[in-house]
Write a structure and sequence with these properties.
By secondary structure, the protein is α/β, with parallel strands linked by helices. It has one domain (about 5-20, about 30-190): 3-Layer(aba) Sandwich (Dihydrofolate Reductase, subunit A), CATH 3.40.430.10. About 15% of the residues lie in helices and about 25% in strands. It is built from four helices and eight strands, in the order E-H-E-H-E-E-H-E-H-E-E-E. Strands 4-3-2-5-1-6-8-7 form an eight-stranded mixed beta sheet, sandwiched between helices. The chain is globular, with a radius of gyration of 16 Å.
Length: about 190
């Protein structure tokens, strides 16, 4: 069984959209909040490097795929991810929208398709961005681990990491945590099954 990991930059009040800046799909007035007013400390992002080393595939929702796919293939820091298999969960994305310079890309149409993918052999699948997808996967009980960098900022508006769906509680086990001098706190949680 493959492990599905959701990784996110998240504000203290649970907002995950536009951490690096405004995107065409997320008009957030505080876009770029991970870089504004918070001192950059490389050690606070060590978890991101580990994710890059451990990932055997990437998963995106349609909107995040459309933002990342024209940019990430040419970014040197993301070179180790270029040839990894990619999965895009979308009911609307057409095959003609897939880029051809970013490894094998497969469109998954349903959460059942994601569940079937998890049952295959292989290592961790890491989900970047994709707030709507992450909420739906969480509600369906498909996420196995959370990698969170929590920033000391309250944003008020924006896409939230978790839905407000009335569902059974889901316990998490803290695997790792660390607080950095700039106020960022890293949490790694496994979902308790």
């Amino acid at each position: 069984m493959r492990k599905l990991i959701y990784t996110a930059f998240v504000s203290l009040d649970g907002v995950v959209d536009s951490p690096g800046g405004g995107s065409p799909t997320e008009a957030h007035r505080s876009g770029g909040w991970t870089y504004k007013d918070i001192e950059f400390l490389p050690e606070a992002y060590e978890l991101k490097g580990r994710e890059t080393e451990e990932a055997t595939a990437l998963m995106f929702g349609r909107a995040s795929y459309e933002v990342f796919s024209p940019i990430w293939p040419d970014i040197e820091d993301f070179a180790p991810l270029k040839e990894l298999p990619k999965y895009v969960v979308s009911t609307t994305l057409g095959e003609d929208a897939l880029v051809d310079n970013w490894g094998d890309i497969t469109i998954l149409r349903t959460l059942d398709d994601v569940a079937k993918l998890k049952e295959t052999d292989g290592g961790p699948i890491v989900i970047h961005g994709s707030a709507t997808l992450a909420r739906n996967l969480s509600d369906a009980g498909l996420i196995d681990r959370y990698h969170l960098l929590v920033f000391p900022v309250l944003l008020g508006g924006g896409k939230r990491m978790f839905s407000e769906t009335d569902k059974d509680k889901q316990l998490l086990k803290l695997v790792e945590s660390k607080t950095y001098n700039n106020g960022i706190t890293m949490f790694v949680y496994d979902v308790v099954r």
